[in-house]
Write a sequence for this structure.
């Protein structure tokens, strides 16, 4: 049985399951397929060992569909886990589009992580874009339709840039193997840019904050796991040790914390927070040492779990109240205490409190940065860590479940949501308490002890004093209040300014054109009437013309034609 | 629709009743004092181990404490300023965004706790 399973590329398991789901009637059978597929895929990957297992020829190229090594394996395993937890959270969904999309999306992301060459990577890269947009459109509102279109354009553009880069790369090197590349040629810059779009690099990031809050409640949980972490994997595979990534990652870790602080939609706060967490991973890739890449991989693993947990808890609140806006929420712990506790576990994990998953993964990256003596980068990342506490550690749980009482008394989340959140919360704590499990599946051997007194005390000081600052600021009423508003980000350029400029330019051009047209028409009519007046049948000249003038003119024209034909 | 009426804590689930301690008069102050004690304790931990710092600055006693406090305050200050610059009305992007939309009722299940 296992041998048969090993014959099928992992991604295809998900695609087959997606077809099966389409055929099966709604109900338990369908849900079992949705939950069973990631488990079977994880078993397959776990038992397969390392190596390249599936090659298919395509137009003279050999596509490697199953390259399992220590880097791809950890990403595939966490993708399987995320798909399982996401589908468990979405147990109540009776929407075929979302179910098929979730499987196809997870399958594409896993396929991309297992691709040994750039062409297979491209196919799966586009697969993630197309499959995932349905999770946004499934909301079935006008806003989500337009948001989905924006998302799709940017994601497809990333794929188009990737294939352009791959073509040039093949032209330059004669190889399509997906391995480490050096930035320098147009080809590698294009591939880098393509990865950067999906990874939400600064100024290329807006699709993330725009689209994730627009997806369905369960769709956002699924979306949060795959696309960006796939991009992190692609960067780790293709551009490990590329110094520019250290600076890009630092900016990524820093700038979203300010936006997250004043954002009202909690799912958008989490999207900014996701962006900030990606920054830590990108810095790790930029450092590129074994310790740093271990930091990136482990952070991606832990991050997918606690971010999913936070999206689930806000999603559960939304499922019961219809909103994820901080200004409308508050005091929900009273009737949703379990969801509140799970949210607090997610908040503690992302804030990297000792005994929670973030602590044992983020310290790997920070130690790697310190080890390479990037002082300012390190200081900036510690700043960003305090920022994480601010928006994800405090803002999300505090303004949802505590703070001012909104008066809402919703029922606790449904059982399957509680199960999904409970399981994810358990994993967040398990990884934090027993880091050796996660460390054992990292790309490189780990020789690192996160629980030293120095680490624990330093981290506790940072977090507790930041909390103290929050307490003082909040008690004095200086904390920015939660208000119904939207904050502009750079996407205002293509959502407002560019359409406005386009409208203005098209208005000016169309007005000018019609004026010129009217004027020229007037001038032309004027010219003809004057000509008619002077040379027309009723003109004074016509009276003196001989009757045979027309015949003479035609004869002259024919003569000219003969002359031209004779000499041509 | 969820009724926006305050119920007595007796109606809450057990876990909710336990946590409702945080809303009792004076709890706010107690939590604040506990936090201060924890801060002092974490500061005191500095004397229990020997530092193997990568950077000189880490060797200062209470570096993380002071840095955490200051950067958090700076963060809030800058964010407050930033809001003044970039805040717009919720319907700024109108129908092309979900900001001013209501989440479809058929995709959620509003149930009141006491229902």
């Amino acid at each position: 049985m296992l041998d048969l399973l090993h014959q099928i590329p992992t991604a295809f398991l998900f695609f087959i399951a997606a077809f099966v789901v389409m055929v099966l009637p709604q109900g338990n059978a369908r849900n079992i397929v949705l939950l069973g597929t990631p488990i079977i895929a994880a078993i397959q990957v776990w038992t397969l060992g390392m190596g390249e297992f599936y090659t298919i020829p395509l137009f003279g190229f050999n596509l490697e569909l199953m390259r399992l090594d220590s880097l791809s394996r950890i990403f595939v395993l966490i993708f399987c886990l995320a798909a399982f937890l996401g589908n468990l959270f979405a147990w109540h969904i009776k929407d075929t589009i979302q179910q098929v999309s979730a499987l196809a999306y997870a399958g594409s992301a896993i396929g991309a992580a297992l691709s040994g060459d750039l062409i297979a990577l491209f196919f799966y890269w586009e697969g993630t874009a197309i499959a995932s947009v349905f999770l946004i459109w499934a909301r079935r509102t006008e806003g989500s339709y337009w948001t989905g279109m924006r998302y799709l354009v940017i994601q497809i553009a990333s794929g188009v840039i990737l294939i352009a880069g791959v073509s040039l790369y093949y032209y330059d090197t004669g190889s399509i193997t997906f391995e480490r590349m050096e930035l320098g040629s147009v080809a590698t810059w294009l591939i880098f840019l393509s990865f950067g779009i999906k990874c939400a690099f600064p100024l290329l990031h807006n699709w993330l904050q725009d689209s994730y809050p627009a997806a369905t409640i369960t769709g956002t949980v699924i979306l949060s796991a795959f696309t960006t972490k796939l991009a992190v994997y692609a960067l780790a595979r293709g551009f490990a040790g590329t110094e520019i990534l250290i600076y890009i990652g630092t900016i990524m870790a820093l700038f979203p914390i300010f936006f997250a602080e004043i954002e009202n939609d909690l799912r958008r706060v989490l999207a900014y927070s996701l962006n900030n967490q990606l920054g830590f991973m990108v810095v790790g890739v930029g450092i590129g040492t074994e310790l740093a890449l271990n930091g990136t991989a482990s952070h991606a693993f832990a991050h997918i779990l606690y971010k999913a947990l936070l999206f689930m808890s806000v999603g559960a609140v939304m499922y019961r109240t219809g909103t994820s806006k901080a200004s409308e929420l508050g005091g929900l712990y009273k009737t949703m205490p379990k969801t509140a506790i799970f949210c607090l576990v997610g908040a503690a994990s992302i804030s990297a409190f000792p005994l929670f998953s973030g602590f044992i993964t983020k310290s790997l990256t920070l130690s790697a940065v310190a080890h390479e003596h990037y002082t300012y980068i390190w200081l900036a990342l510690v700043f960003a860590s305090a920022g994480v506490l601010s928006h994800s550690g405090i803002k999300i749980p505090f303004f949802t479940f505590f703070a001012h009482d909104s008066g809402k008394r919703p029922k606790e989340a449904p059982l399957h949501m509680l199960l999904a959140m409970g399981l994810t919360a358990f994993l967040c704590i398990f990884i934090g308490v027993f880091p050796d499990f996660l460390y054992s599946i990292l790309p490189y051997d780990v020789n690192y002890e996160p629980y030293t007194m120095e680490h624990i005390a330093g981290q506790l000081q940072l977090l507790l004093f930041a909390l103290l600052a929050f307490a003082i600021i909040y008690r004095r009423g200086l904390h920015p209040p939660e208000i119904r508003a939207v904050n502009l980000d750079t996407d205002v350029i293509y959502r407002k300014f560019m359409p406005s400029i386009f409208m203005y330019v098209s208005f000016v051009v169309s007005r000018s054109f019609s004026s010129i047209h009217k004027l020229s028409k007037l001038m032309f009519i004027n010219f003809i009437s004057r000509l008619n007046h002077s040379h027309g049948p009723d003109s004074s000249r016509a009276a003196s013309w001989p009757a045979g003038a027309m015949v003479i003119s035609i004869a002259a024209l024919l003569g000219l034609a003969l002359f031209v034909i004779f000499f041509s | 629709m969820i009724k926006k009426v305050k119920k007595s804590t007796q109606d809450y689930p057990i876990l909710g009743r336990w946590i409702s301690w945080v809303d009792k008069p004076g709890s706010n102050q107690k939590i604040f004092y506990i936090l201060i004690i924890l801060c002092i304790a974490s500061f005191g931990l500095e004397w229990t181990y020997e530092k193997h710092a990568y950077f000189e600055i880490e060797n200062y006693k209470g570096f993380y404490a002071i840095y955490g406090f200051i950067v958090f305050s700076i963060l809030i200050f800058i964010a407050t300023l930033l809001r003044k610059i970039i805040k717009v009305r919720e319907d700024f992007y109108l129908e092309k965004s979900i900001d001013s939309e209501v989440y479809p009722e058929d995709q959620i299940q509003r149930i009141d706790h006491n229902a």
